[in-house]
Amino acid sequence: MTVLGIVAFAIGLLFSIGFHEFGHFFWARKFGMRVPQFMVGFGPTVWSRRRGETEYGIKAVPLGGYIRIVGMIPPAEEGEGKRATRMRTFIAEVRGQALNDVRPDDGGRVFYAKPWWQRVIVMFAGPFHNLVLAVLFFAVVLTAVGTNVYTTRLGSVPACVLPAGAQTAGDANPCQDPIITSGANAGQKCTVGTADCALPQESPAAAAGLRPGDTIVAIGGTPVDTDAFDSWTTVQGAIRSSPGKPVDLTIERNGDRREVTVTPIENTVYVEAGSNATTTAGYLGVSPTPGFARQSPGDVPGYFGMVISQSVQKLVQIPERIPQVFRAAFLGEQRDPNGPVGVVGVGRISGEVFAEQNFTGLQKVSLFLSLLASINLVLFLFNLLPIYPLDGGHIAGALYEKVRASVARLRGRPDPGPFDIARLMPVAYVVAGVFLAMSALLVIADIVNPITLSG
Q1: Which has the closest alpha carbon to 30: 132, 109, 113, 101?
Q2: Which of 4, 5, 7, 12 is nearest to 349 (CA)?
Q3: Do 268 and 280 contact (CB within 8 A), yes or no?
């Protein structure tokens, strides 16, 4: 089953890449551009076939794809400096290679000769197709298959309060072990009688009489969905934002409803599950019960908005998380479960999903489609970064060309013509080098110190 999961993910990834490239291809052909190649993958060609003026093919390494549009780089601008420098020579060579594809009969079919808005549509269409797939997969998961959720049914109610990372957390009876109760060393073991040393205080939840199995159905009189994708987030938000303030809960126990008033205390808690980062917030002393449930179609926009927000945050955090990946790959440090993961790692997780005996068939389908949806969302966001040679870099170049032409027109000057993207080729090579180095690091980390379902 592990192999089946990996193969299924590889096929899904190839489809996602091909659908991305088809977005570029469709609109390029729609606007009359000549496209001599449509390839999925990189490296040696495994299979190809020519139809009309386009060669379609699959290459050996399914880590990307491309379509070759004639005339992506315009001819040199008139008046461009002729003095030979290493950089100008390099740019001239790149320009020459690109213009070699242009035939005498191409005329206005070259990319650079098309209006700026057509070039924007062509370059945006690829990432947009990934966005379409992400929305489709997430919608199917939420409304037809079901998704893993944290319900508002209480799974545990600790008897006492322990700060995040407390030394006694793994002890047989941590409530009987004295700890430092405040300051930078909160949670460290200590001897009764020393400063700030005491037995952990009773948790507010236990003091209020909450029990495992109770289900929170309302907060402050406002009903709460018990098994929605954001049910526990709603409960958690109400608790963490109310240190020292009474919170009115309506709970259901054995079919009966009752009102309970609890007062969260200020405590050191983990920012998110699996993270070592902590923060100070309200603490009640309850944990949820995991569940699996379908969501209503009306929940899809909110869920997708949440996923996009989280994905953007993760994307922004990649540079600062790369050093930890390096230490995990080469120095034996424990891998951060919330850190970046490469294609090899995601494929491995897909294999684990299919092999996990504790998952039902629906749970496996849900997790697999969620992986594909997440990959497509990342492809959408990453490709829109305004950095050449990514799609976003081409879009930024076309928009800059439009702004430059508009400014020239307002000043009564002639249109400067196409933006010379060739001048950004040194940047493209640096970006490509960084991307390849990062991809290689993730591959190594995913092999020697992988992120797994079990943590």
Answers
A1: 109
A2: 5
A3: yes
Percent composition of the chain: helix, strand, coil (DSSP 3-state, to 5):
45, 20, 35
Measuring CA to CA, which residue among 163, 165, 189 is closest to residue 176? 189
Going from the C-alpha of 437 to that of each of 169, 337, 432, 441, the distances in angstroms are: 39, 21, 9, 6
pLDDT in tens, 89-106: 777 777 777 777 888 888
Query: What CA–CA distance (Å, rounded) separates 378 from 302?
Result: 18
Burial of 444 (0-12, 13-18, 19+ CB in 10 A): middle
Q: How many CB atoms lie within 10 A of CB 305?
A: 10
Q: How far is CA 351 from CA 2, 16, 147, 297, 357, in A?
A: 4, 18, 18, 29, 12
**Cα dihedral 109/115/120/123 (nearest 10):** 10
What are the structure tokens assigned to 205, written together? 């939840």
Exactly one of 21, 77, 78, 320 is catalytic; name it.
21
Residue whose entry in the numeric block shows the structure tokens 């526990």? 232
Mean pLDDT over all residues of the chain? 89
d(CA 331, CA 353): 28
For residues 19 and 42, what is the distance between their CA atoms, to the nearest angstrom?
16
Dihedral class, residue 329 (left if φ above 0, else alpha if ψ from -120 to 50, else beta): alpha
Q: Is the dihedral of CA 227, 232, 238, 239 positive or negative?
A: positive
Handedness of CA 150, 380, 435, 63 (dihedral sign): positive
- Rounded to an integer, what distance in angstroms lies between the CA atom of residue 315 and that of residue 450? 19
d(CA 336, CA 452): 11
Structure tokens at 254: 């054995």
Tokens of 47: 């299979």
In angstroms, the CA 263 to CA 284 distance is 7
**pLDDT tens profile 12-41:** 999 999 999 999 999 999 999 999 999 998
pTM: 0.86
Bridging pattern class, strands 247-253 and 256-262 = antiparallel
Contact status, residue 252 vs residue 173, Cβ threshold 8 Å: no
**272 included as an active-site residue:** no
Is the peptide bond between 450 and the residue preceding it cis, with omega within 30 degrees of 0?
A: no
Output the CA–CA distances (angstroms, integers) from residue 226 to 130, 151, 222, 272, in the order listed.
32, 5, 12, 20
For residue 252, list its beta bridge partners.
Answer: 215, 257
Residue with tokens 């090899």: 344
CA distance 296 to 143: 6
Strand ranges inside 129-194, DSSP E = 147-156, 179-180
